[in-house]
Amino acid sequence: MFDRVKITVKSGKGGNGLASFRREKFVPLGGPDGGDGGEGGDIILLVDRNEDTLKKYYLKKEYTADNGMPGQHRKKHGKSGKNLVLRIPPGTVITDITDADKPILVADMDTEGETLVIAKGGKGGLGNVHFTSSTNQVPRLASAGEKGEEKVLQLELKLIADVGIIGLPNAGKSSLLASCSGAKPRIEAYPFTTLEPELGTVVKGKTAFVMADIPGLIEGAAEGKGLGHEFLRHIIRTRLLIHLIDGSTESALEDFKMVNRELNRYDSELMRKKQIIVINKIDKTETQDRIGEIIREFASEGINPLFVSALTGEGIEGLTERVERQLVKIAAAEPSEATVEEVVFKPEPLKQGPVIRREDDVLIVEDADLERLVAGSDIGNSEVRRQLWKMIERKVGIKHLERAGVKTGDVIRVADFNWRY
Ligand SMILES: Nc1nc2c(ncn2[C@@H]2O[C@H](COP(=O)(O)OP(=O)(O)OP(=O)(O)O)[C@@H](O)[C@H]2O)c(=O)[nH]1
Ligand SMILES: [Mg+2]
After folding, report:
1. How close is the Cα of 318 to the center of ligand 1, in Å?
2. How far, in Å, are 15, 59, 413 from residue 355 at the CA level?
3. How far is ligand 1, taken at its centre, from the CA of residue 281, in Å?
4. Among 165, 168, 170, 284, which is best to mutate for testing ligand 1, by the most ligand atoms less than 8 A from CB?
5. Could you read off the pLDDT of 338-352 as tens digits, one per residue?
6. Does the Cβ of 345 fall within 6 Å of ligand 1?
7. Tens digits of per-residue pLDDT, 355-395?
8. Domains of the chain as residue ranges with CATH
9. pLDDT for res 349
10. Distance between CA 208 and CA 324 in Å, rounded?
11. In degrees to the nearest 10, what's the CA dihedral of 56, 227, 202, 302?
12. CB 2 within 8 A of CB 237
């Protein structure tokens, strides 16, 4: 079933900052005018009622938002990358499984219109205008855009119930729910009484399960007739179906086939859901007169239906027992779920100051801002290298370097940049 899927999302990288200088008549080198890079696009989840299933995420599993554009001359910012909005049905649970051994429950999204930035786009790099100082009027530094975030997510549709009751309008679905559970759904002698599923808990000895009364579906439902596709979002979110048929009509088998035809036409995956087939209204003489015929008709399709009366309670005990046995079977066949250990979601990693570690004669400085500065500047140029060293010296502090045991002749390294102390 299309109810649990793994996808990869990647937000956009920030654009690089630009190192450039104003060009003016008679001024060979004007002031710095390199603009900042644009932000990378976010990946955003959006709850949309028009989405019934997670099917589209089975068809396409990788999503990447646009990168930000580089900064421009005249201090112009690069354009931001477009966000990518992924629409999901209400009732989707999102788990971050980037680290498969440590799944993190991120959100349980139920509300129409609710959004979540699941992968934040990288910040744009800084243009050289930011690196002007009293001691440096000709800054040649610029920083690279921040990388986007990449995450592996599990999207899963929450079940609304263990069992869903499906069938034509007036089959007695709400009556059946009422007779199995303590629920008191509206019951009327006209079709489309139930518009939204009603839930009831059925207690069987020590166990209990939840049953949902699903709106009736008619011929053409797959094309939107009757209540249209409303039924689908509910059916897909149950483990097992009770297919209820009014035995007092002339067309029990035809009704049964028609409902299945609609399910199949809408989404053939729905046919993989196990159905318990039940003939209702056994108390009525019209039904009793036809029992032999119904048994024969269904037997020709290899089906041995149960007979019940939602009104008098006849056969209900046998039905709930059958349901319980099926649920146990289904549970045994389901893959055991990964245990979610952590329930904390940190949208942004904590900012870390410079970390210094020694490897032989090399002191390695780890710092995200400095690394971006190295990546965004032309480190082949000696003036750029000199300015870069000044920045490192300022940011890390000579004291820290001395504490780390720096001595003349050591190499201080930030990403690809090496400076002999
Ligand atoms: N005699 C008899 N009547 C029943 C039985 N089950 C339901 N009914 C009647 O059939 C009519 C429809 O029952 P509901 O339970 O509202 O049917 P439903 O399938 O929920 O209908 P919708 O919500 O409109 O799709 C009502 O008048 C019920 O009283 C039964 O076992 N025997
Ligand atoms: Mg009903």
Report:
1. 20
2. 26, 43, 12
3. 8
4. 170
5. 555 545 555 555 556
6. no
7. 898 888 899 999 999 999 999 999 999 999 999 999 998 88
8. 1-158 (2.70.210.12), 163-333 (3.40.50.300), 355-420 (3.30.300.350)
9. 55
10. 9
11. -80
12. no
Instruction: State residue 223's pLDDT score.
Output: 78
Residues of the chain whose pLDDT is less than 70?
Answer: 1-2, 26-29, 228, 230, 335-352
* Helix 252-266 / helix 285-299 crossing angle, nearest 10 deg: 60
Distance (Å, whole) CA 310 – CA 173: 8
Strand, helix or coil for residue 148: coil
Q: pLDDT value at position 3?
A: 76
The whole-number pLDDT of residue 207 equals: 84
The full length of the chain comes to 421
pTM: 0.72
Residues whose Cβ atom is located within 5 A of ion ligand 2: 173-174, 193-194
The structure tokens 């890079």 sit at: 37
**Which ligand has the nearest atom to the CA of 191?**
1
Q: Are strands 62-64 and 92-96 parallel, antiparallel or unpaired?
A: unpaired
